[in-house]
Write a structure and sequence with these properties.
This protein is an all-alpha fold. It is 59% helix and 0% strand.
Length: 192
């Protein structure tokens, strides 16, 4: 638990000393993001932190000088990985309304009406039905619904692919103590 309070420089030095490996910047950013998620509630309560952490968990290097809004894929993976790191009973528990509205915005901006489970914590402006403009034309309504459903399916596929990759990475860890089999089964049950 002591390592959760280490500075990035300390983590980099420990990896070099103990593992004889250079820690790439992106990996260090992900370690720091994970540390932030398990030691604070900023991911659930502060929109700028939520966006930055989603971006880092999705593979972008941390750059506090650039604002890069997290898109629907980055938000989906960010929430998934954060919940793997720090599971909560109710996914919406603790997420601020500001973050839930942001999630709703990126979901609607992507044209998704029926989001995958991980995005169901979103809050929406219910005054506008995205498919409402097509309610007089059943064929167009069906086509638009299928289009948005394909986007939702694409996100679900991305999440499954990322989780499979994460499982392979975890299984390949050369641990001195314990094993990853029990951990992987627990993750599989809670996320798929």
């Amino acid at each position: 638990m002591e390592a959760l309070s280490w500075s990035p420089e300390t983590i980099r030095l420990e990896c070099a000393e103990e593992l004889h490996a250079d820690l790439p910047d992106l990996n260090l950013d992900k370690i720091m993001a994970a540390t932030d998620i398990v030691t604070s509630n900023k991911f659930q309560t502060q929109l700028p932190s939520f966006i930055q952490l989603c971006n880092v968990l999705s593979g972008l290097e941390f750059d506090p000088t650039v604002f890069d809004p997290a898109d629907v894929f980055e938000v989906s993976w960010g929430i998934t990985e954060a919940l793997l790191l720090y599971p909560v009973e109710d996914d919406a528990e603790g997420f601020s309304d500001e973050i839930r509205f942001y999630i709703g915005h990126v979901v609607r901006d992507a044209g998704i009406v029926n989001p995958p489970d991980v995005l169901r914590i979103a809050m929406y402006d219910t005054s506008e039905d995205p498919l409402g403009a097509f309610s007089d034309d059943p064929e167009m309504y069906q086509a638009m619904y299928e289009l948005q459903q394909s986007k939702s399916d694409e996100i679900t596929g991305m999440l499954k692919d990322n989780l499979r990759e994460l499982f392979k990475e975890l299984e390949s860890l050369p641990l001195e103590n314990g094993d990853t089999a029990g951990l992987l089964e627990k993750i599989r049950k809670s996320s798929l």
